[in-house]
What does this fold into?
Amino acid sequence: MSNNTDQKLCFQCQQSGHCCCDPKIIVTTTFVDIFHIYLGLEQDFEYLLKKLTFYRVEDNLSSELRKKLVLSSIKTSDGEIIPGLRKINGQNCTFYMKPNCSIYNSRPRACRNYPIAFLEDQTENPFFWAKDSVNTCPGIGKGSSLVIQTIIEERKKTLNEIKAHNELVYELNTEASKGNPLSAREVIWMFIVYAEKYSFANTL
Ligand code: SF4
It folds into this structure.
């Protein structure tokens, strides 16, 4: 993250598609994101799986770099993974349909927040323009000022969701360390069952 949003917080999406088609931007997903996408798609589980990818985390990743992962990696029988949205040819998000997102109402929270990114440290400026966005996103500086209170509320929801996700992953990893990890596919199904059970359907 970079470029403090200090004085002027104006943004209005110009539907450029830059954020959805930038090969440098990947969208990783919490169990809540995956649940909302599943509900929004109204397709079967196999279809959902085709839209996801599993970013591999190397076993020997240093603890320093591990701490920087916003979403904890999940130990599965397919390796250590972080689920995210598939990209076509490493570029366009699988859900991008020019000029917009085909799952707009159920898109992941990171997409909703973009180009704003959040920090956990409440003593500093708690939100930033996401990395490189000031150079690539034509919506920054356009439109009227964003409402700070809305950003603060969104930040709270985002951080709560990340926390809930990482707590769930911690439980999964604890079970996996006992010698019987789920497969990546089973983890995604478990995410959906868990989100449904604990009523995460209307949390957007
Ligand atoms: S889910 Fe939608 S908003 Fe998010 S990157 Fe994909 S196309 Fe863009």
Observations:
- Helices lie at 18-21, 31-41, 45-51, 63-68, 109-113, 133-136, 148-176, 184-197.
- The CA atoms of residues 13 and 139 lie 5 Å apart.
- The chain has one domain: 2-197.
- The pocket of iron/sulfur cluster is lined by residues 20, 27, 85, 93, 95-96, 101, 103, 107-108, 111 (CB under 6 Å).
